[in-house]
## 1
Amino acid sequence: MNYRGAARKFLESSGISIGDIIKITTNDVFYEGMLLDRADSKEEKNLVLKLDSGYNIGVDITEATIELVGKGEKPKIELPPLEIKEEDEKPNVSILSTGGTVASIIDYKTGAVHPAFTAEDFLRATPELLDYAMIKGEAIFNILSENMKPEYWVKLARSIADEVNNGAYGVVVAHGTDTMHYTSAALSFMLDTPVPVVLTGAQRSSDRPSSDAFLNLMSSVAAAKSDIAEVVVCMHATENDSYSYIHRGTKVRKMHTSRRDTFRSINTAPIAKVKEGKIKVVDKNLEYKERRDGPIKLRDSIEPKVAFIKSYPGIFNESIDYYVDKGYKGIVIEGTGLGHCPEDVIPSLERAVDSKIPVVMTSQCIYGRINMNVYSTGRKLISAGVISGLDMLSETAYVKLIWTLGQTEDLGEVARIMHTNIAGEIEDTSSLQHFLI
Amino acid sequence: MFDYEKLGLKMGLEIHQQLDTNQKLFCGCSCNLEDKKPDFNILRNLRPTQSELGEIDRAAFEEARRKLKFIYEAYNHDTCLVEADEEPPNPLNLQALELSLVIASLLNMKVVDEFYTMRKQVIDGSNTGGFQRTGLVATDGHLDTDYGKVIIENLCLEEDAARRIGHKKGAIVFRLDRLGIPLVEITTSPSMKHPQQVKEVAYQIGQVLRSTKVKRGIGTIRQDLNISIKDGARVEVKGVQDLDLMPQMVENEVQRQVELLEIRDELQNRNATVENGLYDVGGIFKDTKSKIISKSESVLAIKLNGFSGLIGREIQPGRRFGTELAGYAKKMGVSGIFHSDELPAYGISEVEVAAVFDFVGASDEDAFVLVADREEKAQNALQEVQRRAKIAINEIPEETRKALPDGNTEYLRPLPTASRMYVETDIPTIKISKELLSEIKSNLPELPKDKKIRIMEEYDLSEDLASQLVRVDKASDFEELMKEITIDPTTVASTLAYTLKELKRDGHDIDKLNIVIIKNTFNLLQEGKISKEAVPKILIGICEEGHSPEEAARKYDLIMLSEKEIEKIIHEIVSSNKKMIEERGSGAMGPLMGMAMKKLKGKAEGKLVNKLLKEKLQNKL
């Protein structure tokens, strides 16, 4: 329990534990209810009670007496197991869960929203999914997406490969939204997939009736059954619960802290939209890899020791030198504008390249393409050996460098791979239409 | 009249009052309703979810079954992401919390030590999140009434729901302007035994609320009534607007329950049953003259064994048991039902009725119910009717019902169960310190009954006038006026307490009569430009024509005449009535005064006219 000090002593001396029904009497009033634990762990004075009316209140025990009314069972969030009938005609879709808002429930111990659902729980929450596919669920991780690590991307990629090789017609990955676009980029580079791999999540937690998880899951299962054999992100297209977009995994970014339509395709259009289970291509000129037979190819060697640094007015050389001295294997610098950083920093970048550490330049403008030929600073960066990130998203370039360094250590080869379109992360032309959509 | 004591009648009240705060409870938006056309619409669906106890709420589940979509009307500048459920809530509005503490203290309640914001699941679309945020502020207060002490059980601070605007293409339309306005919910214990007591308590709570910073006007206060009788069920009647209607509403609900209990007993006597099957009777109505049926895609029927004659039985003035069944069917989106007790009628012929009886295999003792609509809708509707009919054999269901203007009620939804509450994790809890509480308690506003006694003494008003001033909520206006004018308090008070009410009753738009206008009118009186009698007429002129007080006085010729002018008129009257004066002598005073006042009403003080006339008459005699 999270109670400390006097509150803890008070409870222990009365032989009372979380979940018990108790009666607390103070000077002029008494309350009867179930004792809950506190979300914060520093409280010494106030007990939390859940009253019969359903309301929680805090009660100061300083001048109170307590009485045990009944020993309670600690409420469990547990549901009977789900029976899924095998049906041949429906395609098999695997849902892998990693935690995050799309798969979260209120935790009784802390009172906070926590990732705790298993993939099966999606089906309890959204049984309609079974109308569209044979669903198989598995929980891979139970972590918030801010706690993701490159090593987890590898583990996830392997799990997906297993599902596909075991006959999954498509795979849905439930993922926290914060770093979903890092994972989608990583999976794009690691997997050469013959079937759709669809990442989805929720901006409003799935414990609430208005959660976007339901539409996102339904649309994602539809996307997993489509012929778009790529790693994609499928989320709300607008703030309405009406349709979703399928975004290419390397060209998508979380653009709003809280809105449902936070994910946007950057420097390109979404591949398709999903409305009521139907897929409609958004831009016919935008090509995608089509569903095919054959095994999934896994290229999962990585080098996670890559630094991701933002340039800003006043940045110190040490910010670069630190990583070089600490033995980092690569640096992505998110520069300003067309791909710049203060001239003072350039010697440190040059030193990195001289130490065989590739340095890749992206832009904090988010939209647009790197071009270091226009201004003298850019030209100095080129001659220092900095690799252009072209029109790649900074996050995608960071993930790609991790993946590339898993393939080769050779600087020239790294530059070549970084400039080769592996998974749709690089567009040859910059269309007029693809800004702020 | 029923013997309420014998029936074991118990009633409780739930009062919702909007607070008058600058911002909403969980965002910075202002608390004003919008009449402008909305700038954009948001389309949403809601679904029931597990509560922290792992159960899905009964009422929530039913709403979901209707598969309704919701359209939220929003504004570019007056709607924010919190209201659109696109951003977590801001911290709780502390101004609202403090106001709720004031109200709790006035109702002698015990305030909790720590305030928790909860999520109360409501998935009828009225909250974009699918839950209403609410928290318990205080418990265990009391009010004294002529019928005894009433316990005030709970006071909660919560956010108001979105405003229901209407229907559009299978979706319910709400406007987000009202969503999030802070309100207090005050619940009495369900221990009141007399309908008049309920009315009195509602009135007293209203008076307490009005002494604090709460919103005024239509829709800012809503009263719900809990009613139960011993063998019946607990029923919550939503939205009782008119306090005077409360006793009637109680009587009608008691009648409904008494009748339903008799129907239950009769059904049990007859061994009545409800079959689960649905019959497609479309074939029978191929050439029907019933417009509703001929327009419908599908006509389905159910059979109710042993229900004959009971469905048409009246259970409230003008409402039958069939109306109850229809209430359940309507929740599935159909416009109504037909039942065998009311047929043939509505274009359905005797032959068709007989054919349906035959088709479903019903005897004279049985009944059937028809629904004509799209097949899925008709199916859902009839399944609801079956469910309701089955309950009728055993008991009266616990329900939330809607108050109707005629004192009746209609089915809204099942009574929610307690499991619909779980903690709002996005809002930190708030400790309510003893210091804050004692500061609030030492600065409480004056209660109406105390105010009445004080103004009686301070301004030398009659008890009747003082209590009427307080009752119509004009005491503060009165005191404000008295600070600035020197007219006798009784005139000012009776204008505010009675004249305004009379003007309103006569259909005048008294909204224009703000305190400044009333003050300016009294200024004319103070300056001797108008008479006391002219005040109501001037006020009417302001209401009707939008004049200023002075313009109205001129327009209606109510400016006081000078003594000379009055003398002149009196002289004329006396001169033209010489004969009468000769005949009656001083007895002519009465009729002459009448004539003079008729001519001078509103333009001269009666006292003066009387004096001048008396002098004149004496001279003549």
## 2
Amino acid sequence: MKLNLRIWRQKGPNDRGSFKNYTVEANEHMSFLEMLDFLNEDLIVKGEEPVEFDSDCREGICGSCGMVIDGVAHGPWQGAATCQVHMRHYREGETITIEPFRAKGFPVIKDLVVDRSAFDRIMIAGGYISVNTGAPPDGNTIPIPQDKAERAMDFAACIGCGACVAACPNSSASLFTGAKIAQFALLPQGETERKRRARRMIDQMEKEGFGDCSNYAECEAVCPKEISIEAIARMRREYLKAVF
Amino acid sequence: MKLDSKIPAGPVNEKWDLHKNCIKLVSPANKRKYTIIIVGTGLAGASAAASLGELGYNVKAYFIHDTSRRAHSIAAQGGINAAKNYPNDGDTIWRLFVDTVKGGDFRAREANVYRLAQVSGAIIDQCVAQGVPFAREYGGLLANRSFGGAQVSRTFYARGQTGQQLLLGAYSAMMRQVDAGRVKLFPRREMLDLVVVNGKARGIITRNLINGDIEGHEAHAVLLCTGGYGNVYYLSTNAKNSNATAVWRCYKRGAAFSNPCFTQIHPTCIPQSGDYQSKLTLMSESLRNDGRVWAPKNKGDKRPPNEIPEDERDYYLERKYPSYGNLAPRDISSRSAKEVCDEGRGVGDTGFAVYLDFRDAIDRLGKEVIRQRYGNLFDMYQRITDENPYEVPMRIYPAVHYTMGGLWVDYNLMSTIPGLYVLGEANFSDHGANRLGASALMQGLADGYFVIPYTLGDYLASTELPKVATEDDAFNEATDNISQMTEKLLGINGDKTVLQFHRELGKIMWDNVGMARTKRSLELAIKQIKILREEFWQNLKLIGSDQELNKDLEYAGRLADYFELGELMAQDALLRKESCGGHFRKEYQTGDGEALRNDKEFAYVAAWEYKGEGKKPKLHKESLKFEAVKLAQRSYK
């Protein structure tokens, strides 16, 4: 099938960038990224610069890929990363607009590649449990009720892709930060440092230029792991408990 | 080159403890005087960075991704083995050790494997303490499931995302050390060379993938944790950026490469659907706990699966291997699927697929239980194939998944270059000719959390390491080499893209150095690779410059290494005139088509030494002694 693509091209962080139009002869079994590979092959053969984008595992778990497709982070398919979108969802002759994740905290590096290192710095501020490698107690000395472990796992499933930020009108990183805080708040292992963790991670999130949460819930709608905004409610509770 | 495996004396179950008792230590005050470079921060690298940072070393960690949470360990689904015996089903450290040696078809080092089994329990404890949300029973205790190649339930898991959760655990431990100032991160850096000064590994050269800067970095020791080389085959379950460049450039600096022909073809992947395909997707082996593998009894049976009656189905794994059934090890399951398809009984459009059927499990346990166990995998399958596996059996076919071969290391995980250590999938040591399911995560974390913190100190405390600087000749020489290679690649100005070349190389490798190999196919592969490689250096087309983000340029450098590595894989396979584990030579099989080992001549580790451009590499042999486990033909019948 023939598709028209409107793709954001930007040479570097200081370039203004603009949309460029392309056409591509795709096939319905291709994944979205395979369609872009196909376009890039064509561009290289013609002597034009290929469209740069991040991708790695191509099965929705590494969190590398991410673009805004027709205004939606990760595109039209709920609960899927960009790499999991397949071309069978598109029709002959359709026009698809492709942009990078846009946020103050995610400066564009080139084309669709953005710098998400702010997420790492939020994790460095407290996204861990302080335990040295050595001789921890036997795993079964810390029983955790199954429902709690499952709930913690729901939040732990975050792949750090940044779609939540890209979808939020405030460019808030609350779902990302909240998911980690909520995971540890549900587990006995996270108890000792819960106040410090909430305070430090949230302070860092603000320092990185991410906005506050206004409950739009756009983040939940685009999250490829369908993480609930309950994470944000839990994060706020943790923060209140930590500061007062 | 002399191979000294440095296996400690004593009975196999006491070696590690005896070794720990007598290796040298670095005093706490002195640790901060040592700088350690870690390349690659997946399970092995991140766990090593965290542990060494905690001990007080200065750690510098380099990785190609924007953040180390992207490392391909993240994609491991099924689980991690540990001999905890929580289910009381008779598991012991000894049994995990024996299963792993046997599963590896007697081509791994006993002492290393025993140590792996020995520390397996501590890994689980460590991860629980870090807050890894493992699956739990209703009583709140840790849950286990069974996996291929074992008759006990010793696999711990976090839904179908065990690798993700373990990696995030190691990543968080490493981030804590970043916060403490003991680990410094260097994201989006690709290691392009190793710097050897006075015969010792003293640094690396990296390319900054954002602006193209070639940078030198010095250290007292270098740890390579860069994963496997499955992407030589183009189509594999590996992530797109997983590559062999770091290990290959170390090989060219003098690190021996071991058993390159030992590659694992995973039995349960989603079949290829077309030429445009960029990678294959694995479906966790845990599916074989409840799914039954079958193919039609009759050739060319094109009926939809649900219309094929019971007596016209061949549950070939259950038929051939009644005691393990669908849980037969990976190499055996993969080969059986290939045989069925080669007989013309394959299914789907291409005829290169067999069924993995959950009908009986759904009847027995109900749809809800199956959804709880495998829901995310079923969703993933449906998303890719547009078919509902609750109603229609899955179609699966084997795909390249893991490489058991890698850089040669001694018992301390040090390569043949002093000061260069190799951890995780990048080394060769623990899995022999075939890796059992749920053992990769175990090995990566064992190496990083529980082995390297001990063995590295021994080297540092007993070795003189005078100061080096990145202005030294060795750094300049390495930097110049890289610039020349980059210039050469960008200057070819041919007509064919990197991807086109890679696809062609992949096809040569899959057809001739894949699941079944012959003298003829291997010789053909060596010939074809040489021709293609020559064409690559004359007809490659690259766009852009080396002063910017240029993924195609990165890719070209990696492919240049794959040509050379692919050839070595074929040579190694040609020389190993036996069948063992993932290495199946058609000429060497038993009457009923099983792998026929030749222990008299081939019970050794092949270690290849680089002899220079255009010269034949030299083969060294480390003979393998089996003192604890008796050499025997594997039988899963």
## 3
Amino acid sequence: MYEGVKAAAVHNPSSLAELVLLRNRLPGALLWAGGTAIMSKTRLYPASDGIDIIYLGNVQELKRISRSERYLEIGSQVSIEQILRVGQHILHPVFAGACRESGPYVIRSQATIGGSLSLEDYSLNIPTALSVLESQVEIRNPENKKPSTQWIPVHRMFSRNRERSRLQPAIITRVRIQLEEGDFEFFNTVGEPYLNPDEAVILSVFAKYNLPAISEYRFALSFPLYGIFRSREIETAVSINDLPFEQRDISRIIRSLREDLQESSFPISPLQRERACRVFEYALHRMNSQSIK
Amino acid sequence: MKISCRINGKSTVFNTYADKPLLLLLVEDSDITCLNPGCGTGNCGNCIVLLDNHPVLSCMIPAFRIRDKQITTFEGYEKTRFYNDIARGYEEAGATPCSFCYTSKTLLIESVIHENSAPEVDDILDMLSINKCSCIDENDLVKVVEIAVKYRRRRRVRRS
């Protein structure tokens, strides 16, 4: 496999300043976070002839977790397992669920939050949960003479038009998650998003209510190969109802969702559409039962 | 690129490609024979080694990540006294993994015991779920770990 291949050069920056300088000098280099995605696809290694690899694992600034009154900020090199150890009372249940279902301990210890937001052809658990929590990602653009920083909503990075590809060669440095508490949070995957991405569906829901009124309802449906689907119309259609929902309200919402998915630009399969509708309906029933407890 | 590390306590230097998987390094460029190259993409969980005492899938670790690290394969681990605790666990529970996954399951069980002296059933199953071989029932695996934990605890008490 490796005969005749020119060796890749590995760069190990230890600070953010060093990383930005290096990235400016080598815009085409491969940024290596945890490496679980790269190593799980044999087509991605050996790296093509003479490519440079920038390993992010030694950049201390990217490994920090900090908390203020309103936000939890997680460095892009923090592993999924480390995030879970932050504590259940700080993490949103929807985000904790997404982290837990990212894989077994061995994978979670190696995969990083930044890496999971950088996958070019997949939108998996972490982006789906972060999207519904209206989280933002700090992007550092090393191209200008004076490196600039901007915060981008996760949802924009994973929407249908894939803004991620336009972010190259920027570096993801931090993720900011709001700490506002939800009254109902739900995370579920149907199928195996990484192994069978063309069949799987991921759903995250965040809702606030003051019985019987729903004050806020947000959802994100991810189709791993195509991006994250969100619809303000469906969110409004849910939140104009009082809790508990009646069966005819649920049927009406699901009918609208089915139509929206059919009309959307996501080229999903009938199986994915059916799965999306059913898992969404299941979440509505869960919210119902929680509200009448 | 030249990469030095310690494999089962022995200093080793590889002259290799930076992103060559550790699994291939061990199988092709060293005298390790206990590893079963399975899927090579992190799905089967049959290539577990310990990297600085933490379990990793060797097919997912690039060569440049092992610089100056301590790698323990089953061949090195089975020579330690800790292995006896797990071997007794297999024997007393009456459940031994098949030859294909034995080395990986044993190193994963060691990791469970090493990281938590009183592991919960969920912790055990979470750690072991990386290995997809279904030759042993989950309940039996939990039993093996519980017996191994008991022997490990006795060993610790004797030492202290």
